[in-house]
Amino acid sequence: MKKFLKYMSPFAPDQSGACGVFYELGGLIIICDAGGCAGNICGFDEPRWLDKKSAVFSAGLRDMDAIMGRDDKLIQKLALSYEQLGGKFALIVSTPVPAIIATDLRSLERMGEKKINVPCIALDCTGTGYYDKGEEKAWFRLFETFAKDSFEKVKGRVGIIGATPIETGYKDASNLKEYLSKKGYDNAVIYSMGTTLEDVIKAGECEKNIVISLAGLKAAKYLNDKFGIPYEIAYSFIPENIVSEAKNYSGKNILIIHSQFAANELRNTIGNTDKIKCATWFMQDKEFAKEGDIQLSGEDDLTELLEKENFDLIIADSDALPLIKATGFNGEFIDYPEFAVSGRLLG
Amino acid sequence: MNKAFFKTTKEIVAEGYDNLPVEFVSNKHLIYSSPATLSFNSPGAKGYGVKRAGLAVPESVMLLVSPSCCGRNTSLFKSSPEYKHRFFFQLLDDTDIVTGRHLMKINDACREILDSLDKRPSAIMICITCVDALLGTDMERICRKVTETHSIPCVACYMYALTREKRLSPMAYVRTSVYSLLDKTKRENRDMNIMGFFSPLNDKSELYSLLRSAGIENIRELARCETFDEYKELSKANFNLVLNPESRHAAQDIQKRLGIPFIEMLRLYQPDKIHNQYALLANALGVKFDDSEYLENAKKKIADFKEKHGELKFAVGEILNGDAIEIALMLVKEGFKVECVFATIGELNYRFLKALAELSPDTKVYSNLSPTMLMYENDDIDCYIGSDCAYYFSDKPGIECCDDTEPFGYQAVTDLFDALDKELLK
After folding, report:
1. What are the C-alpha distances in Å from B238 to residues B102, B214, B241, B259?
2. What ipTM was predicted for this assembly?
3. Which CATH number fits domain A240-342: 3.40.830.10, 3.30.70.100, 3.40.50.1980, 1.10.150.130?
4. What is the CATH number of domain A158-233?
5. pTM to 2 decimal places
6. Residue B77 pLDDT > 80, yes or no?
7. CATH class of the domain comprising A14-144
8. Considering only CB atoms, which chain B residues are within 8 Å of A97?
9. CB-CB: which of A1, A84, A130 is closest to B109?
């Protein structure tokens, strides 16, 4: 049965992805929900919540707000918080409730901007999509809204687009910087992790952008069109121990289940790529897929794949292991935690 | 203003309950999911939310029918032994929501659940969320269909965060749901149930001894039922003792369906009030309780603690097994100082607040839910009580007072001071 989970738990939703992109940028973030979605974000999908303060709030919608469509009340609450706390912008992240009642998000943006006089962005998340959908919208709106002016290029400055704790499994930019240094990128700006809104505004300073997730591609294309910044696809954050263990199986039939760019990178690093298939629970772009790569829409798809094909090794988040075992798979398994699946961090 | 909003007890009482500042009225401001209080803002995040609570029925399983976001944090406890193979998810997509077709799939999902399990569950709890609240889904009808098709009890659990502040909140409703599988049976004179919590009362609570002294032989609690047969015995009770107002609706429902009356008590920490409550309970049961020994013990415990540690200055939080304002009142009455309280003010605890204002007018009251708590700077205290305070005052000694095992009565008081003593001696 499609969309039915017997073994796994639901993955990180789009509103978590959207929130993660803006989390460190100094705005007021309002999750337009009754409380549960904001609780999920703060209590589970945003690992920075306990260490790094950010103004993430729930709209605290109640049944009558939804029934009556009281957008003005939300704007009043936003204005009160802005008066108390300030903020460089306001981000309103939609959730299932506003999606169902068809809240006019453009109108919320206009009402919000008029009331508090800072940019107001409303993202149409629904809770039915996964984190990468939310991130894609967020990355695009972030650069579209704030990266408006051209700047003189800074030699060696490289922009990293797509890195969030959900995507990388790291909650702190310092880990990511180490990986980038090893690749020779000492002046990298990892957007939304350890950087500021000012860095986004000055996105035009970069000589090149590196896109580490499919969710960041649309934004990279926007920056290419706007400022002529070239971009390349690369994922530099795969832990050494996973790479070295996986390399032992080079030449064997391998299945890697992870986000598309990370899985592709690991496949290329292992070598003998014809023997390796990549699958993902999340977005997949045919342009970056090899023949046989698969986008999994649910547990059934993976069961079907494993019944059809024989793999010597599966590399995936161990949350999928009970499902994999239930298919009778008796090959080797390497645990590569994927935060959007299990909520486990790498560092 | 850029500082956490607070009012003193005196200022709040001077304005009256009907004129609480906006910051204390949660539907008038954005809600801060403070790291200190995450359990409030996600009905399923921490502690016993609707999802965990729904599985209080022994040997049952749960099907969560929702968008993926609602079940996301279930990973937190899904793998723990008591919940293994008990959670299943039917995820909704946009078309499901627009057409309502997901409702047609629930029966099939239940079949898949039953086929996948080695042992047949006692019941299927179907948990639905804000989505179905807005769609107006008749889940009772769907549950009946599941029961007819698969010959298994099926109960709806409503995780409707949108209705959190209604008279019948999601947590009150789920308490009704988990008792709804009880059938009318012959009541036994010497049987009773304790209602109110999803984990058992502390074994040391004197409540058990006092009830036994009144001739009660079988004291049952939902949380102590390990099998569905044990659960079914709850319907033998001669009366229910409700220790948490959120269980009142469940008790009323049981009274209506099974004819079992109920008595309500509150969890209090003021020894004299505990004594009064026991006297009232004894009166209702037509007996007399001798609680003098427990009362003296509690009083002595507090006196010894005070002598040993002096007049400490406390912060009291609301994420604990009790009411923050009532505990603050107890501390002040016993001669301690309370610098600040983190609390949600409601009709029930406002009367404690009024008493506290008279004895300690300068005690500050904060609302954990106020966005201004992002700017909170620590007050000057010696010691804290409450899990939220553990976050705010991580460099101070204190206790979370938040165990899954529920303290009650004089035992709660003595354990509280024992735990504080232990922490202060570290």
Report:
1. 42, 13, 10, 9
2. 0.95
3. 3.40.50.1980
4. 3.40.50.1980
5. 0.94
6. no
7. alpha beta
8. 130-131, 134, 162
9. A1
